[in-house]
């Protein structure tokens, strides 16, 4: 859990010092992309904790989801359909679900560790 | 281009069942790298959202509107004061001109110069041109800008009138003087720092026939405006009341050369 947070902080710091910015016209599409990226990362963390993490699926999912989310939002704007609403809904629901599952897993781990320790203590 | 990368990933994947620890560090590395990219993306997005700026807060808007109100009131007060002072100045001039023939001559000279500068109201024959936005039904996809009156159109008409010998011109009560500006400001046109909206009523004093024919010239200003359906109405009048320039005249930077030391 420490590595992803460290990576995120490093990314924020590096991004802060690099002169990168999104053109204002594309900002709405990039925000959808970021939502997709966040969803991918949380999904990856969840999979890792559940033990069925697959690097290929995770990495390809991150890039393709991110690009496709931005592209679909843009495409929807061209068509006059507010597709980005669908993306916000779909990704938003999944992000919160994954967050809940990650939280539960972590609490379970903590609780089981503590009970193990207690058992050890009582045994000795 | 992507193939080597994919092959690498597939290789990693195939090694997975044998080495559980290795796959776990691999997962950590993958997530960290992706988080790193996500962080950079986030910063880029923050920056662009900051640039476009969040909506102006209501408090700020209220502050600005009250400020505008007080400034407008102040301006109106000063305008009144200016008119009073001008009237008083005229009184002084009258009184002074009675004392000697020299001062009388000076007063006449002053009046002439004032007339030239557009500081005196007056009357005379001329024409009244009314311009209004087009009322033609607009086809979908056509540029709405073509059917509105722009600063350039007004400038062209004013220019044509001056060229035809107009001696004084006003637009919606704003006298055109030597440093009057005609400029687009959003949906309105600003002249002498006053915002004007259509219809524009242009008064010009001069020979009515000459002025009218100058505008109605074939291929002239009016014809080009009428192509886009802009409504033009020209009326000759025997007597036009021309307002004076009401704003203040200040020379902050310009200093006239003294008589006798004009550089050639």
Automatic annotation (TrEMBL), chain A:
The keyword Iron-sulfur does not apply. Keywords: Cell membrane, Membrane, Transmembrane, Transmembrane helix. The chain crosses the membrane at residues 5-20, 56-75, 81-102. One of its GO terms (cellular component) is plasma membrane. Its main location: membrane. InterPro entries: DUF1290. It is a multi-pass membrane protein. Pfam families: DUF1290. It comes from the Bacteria. Signal peptide: none annotated. It is found in: Cell membrane. Belongs to the sbp family. This is Small basic protein.
